[in-house]
Amino acid sequence: MRKFKVIIGAKRYFQERIKDIDKAKSFLDLVKLSDACRERGFLLKEEQKADLLVLKNDNYLALSEPANDRLGDLIFDLTTDDSTIFIHNPPSNLMFFLKSKGSSSEIILESDEQKYDILRGKDEYVSGINAIKKEIIGQNAAIIEVSKTLKYLTEVKRSKPYVIMLYGNSSIGKTELVRKIANYFFNNQLLEQHLSMYKSNANSEYLFGDKSNRRSISFDLLERESNLIFLDEFDKCSDYFYSVFYTMFDNTIFKDAFYEVNISGALIILTSNYTSEEEIKERLGLPIFYRIDKFIHFEDFSCATIHEIVNKELDERFDEYKDYFTKEEIYQLVSKRILTSGENARTIKNKIQAVLEQLLFETFLKD
Fold it and tell me: Considering the entire predicted model, what is its pTM?
């Protein structure tokens, strides 16, 4: 009787569970061999079939759509009756096939699913929040709100995803904060999607899962390394795609036409350049708006924050200019270009860069 071991999770998780397996045959090599035999009018010989087979999730992408449609039968064709088959993140049709065979006792079916969680220790929470406070400048109110949410998530066992929208003008710390949360609460792991790029039919296929042999967001969610999902520039996404997120934000199981993925307890963070909750409600519409659990506003930089960021940037880049200029010399010229309001991290970095290039060029000319 065939024994199937289904492993759900990241590639690393799958590899850890098959690392001691030797002599497994390549699924794709067997498919090619079987196709070659059929072209000559023969079936695969019994001795050519696999006693031990490893089927990686990337293998589905190399198959034709018809082959994916009959994936369960194809595995049977390529393996012996007493074989062991390891399967990574099977598509829904294959999982249905295996469960049906398992319930009728035609196969032995075992499952192993990666567990995701936020770091829950009190010491980890305190040190993580303190580090974020030091590293994110000028957004104290936003950090307090994020701290409340992270404390809640580290204390409770939540089933539905928790969805936050960070909103405010560009380059004032939203994305940086998400990366710090990943660093200190999710072992520096997150699944990141840039929604400003979601404009074409190819993106539609990715989000809705239109083809069995193409990557989709469900495919990527299955092999994520943590339960932190980052959807950047949510305001730039085409309205047509919002229906995908209705179910993602509101359910523990997310499905497309070919995959089914457990997103229980996920923290989903959205960023946008909206400036008020009223604007968010108007632009996104009520179905999405009321599926977002929390809205956190990021303030424009104050004069004091701009001053602090300039000094921080000059300190971090000190090795670049220390052989030529002092920090005070650089600051004197930079301060003439930096405004007391309306600046963001990107404009500050660009102005410092321009000053450094100008000074180095002038030094070259003098020499």
Answer: 0.91
